[in-house]
Amino acid sequence: SRKKKRETKAKEYDIRLRELSDSLKRDNIRITGVPEDEREKGAESLCEQIIVENFPNLGKDTDIKIQEAQRTPIRFNKNQPSTRHIIVKFTKYSGKKRIMKAAREEGSLTYKGRQIRFAADLCTETWQARKERQDIFNVLNQKNMQPRILYPARVSFKIGGEIKSFPRQKLKKFMTTKPALHETLRVTL
Residue 37 is part of which domain span? Predict the structure, then answer.
């Protein structure tokens, strides 16, 4: 019993730490796929150029200001060149929100003819939790249940005309009350 309480507390602390880390990164965007040969330019001017190139309407917007930008360190083989991500911190959350919305609407983003991608900058644990829910998302999507993965890693979908939202453990409990849903997700959970 004491060991179980300690494990429960440890899980709660991990969740709080992840939420704190994500809230610190709230104003950040991660840009992937930008070529390494652009090192002579500062990361900030590079990001401004990417924004102007992909979102001409937002490039002139005074509300969208970059506070700082930096490249991530090389993580894999230091001898083999690989593209590093760029982390961009905006002065306001609204600036990040508008850029992300424009990126979703645009779909395919490029910089100097190369495909790039914008993503929210979240901690590794949150990305891992989202990745674990991807197979659930795919099954629900095939059944046309309009699934979504919400922050930080909750699964939301439409069932019986209403939208339900669950973390993984509560989804398992809810499945026991819905035999059809249980049969649909039996393999993935």
Answer: 26-121
